[in-house]
From TrEMBL:
This is GST C-terminal domain-containing protein. GO terms for cellular component: aminoacyl-tRNA synthetase multienzyme complex; cytoplasm; nucleus. Residues 49-171 form the GST C-terminal domain. Pfam families: Arc1p_N_like. The gene is eef1e1. InterPro entries: AIMP3/p18_C, Arc1-like_N, EEF1E1, Glutathione-S-Trfase_C-like, Glutathione-S-Trfase_C_sf. GO terms for biological process: positive regulation of DNA damage response, signal transduction by p53 class mediator.
Amino acid sequence: MALRELSSLEKFLGLKKPHKYSTQGVKKVPLLQSNNGPALVGLATIASHLAKEAKKPELLGTTPEQRAVVQQWLEFRVTRIDECPREEIRTVLKDLNQYLEDKVYLAGNSLSIADPLLYYAIHHIVVDLAVQEKERYMNLTRWFDHIQHYPGVRHHLAPVVVLRNRVYTSCHH
């Protein structure tokens, strides 16, 4: 899955010449063989490299604090989402929903490399959520919908329908 995501990330970044990726180990960690040095290993490392190669370092953060937050979200993606047991996914969604309560993007006031990578990671989860569940995770759903409509992000993924108005269970509203 990560290899397809890296391909979509390349397109989003506007890189014209696609890289060749492979995986290593049981966990299928992404690997990018470089012409000018050692192979790059890991989703976060490769994504950061691609942003620099595309001459879009702002996607990695513009201040030291923002760069740290972007790296934190890339780490979150790999450790909390990619490694998440099925029975714990609701906890992760709840945590994301709470974090996004007063935010448009994961790290600051503009899109970072963490936004599309997290979007790619949870797409298969959000697409299967019922309307009521999407409402329960309203902040996450809002962020997800915003990112899926961000120019050039979605690529290989189907759009997820998100209702714009809340569904009420009683007529007292």
